[in-house]
Amino acid sequence: MARKTRRIVLAAPAAGLPTRATFRMEEAALAPLGDGAALVRTICCSVDPGVRARLSDGASYAPPLKPGEMIDAFCVGEVIESANPRFAAGDLVALGGGWAEHVVFPGRGYIQKIPHRRLPLSVWIGALGVPGMTAWFGLKRVAALEAGARVLVTSAAGPVGATAGQIAKAMGAARVVGVASGAEKADWLRSAGFDAVVDYRRTDDLGAALAAASDGGYDVLFDNVGNAMIDAALPLMRIGGRIVVSGQVADYNTPAAERPGLRNTAYFIAQRLRMEGLVVFDDLRSFPQAQEELSAMIEAGAVKTREVRYHGLEAAPQAFIDLFTDQSAFGRRIVEIGAEP
Question: Between 287-300 and 130-137, two packed helices, what is the crossing angle to 10 degrees?
Answer without folding.
Answer: 100
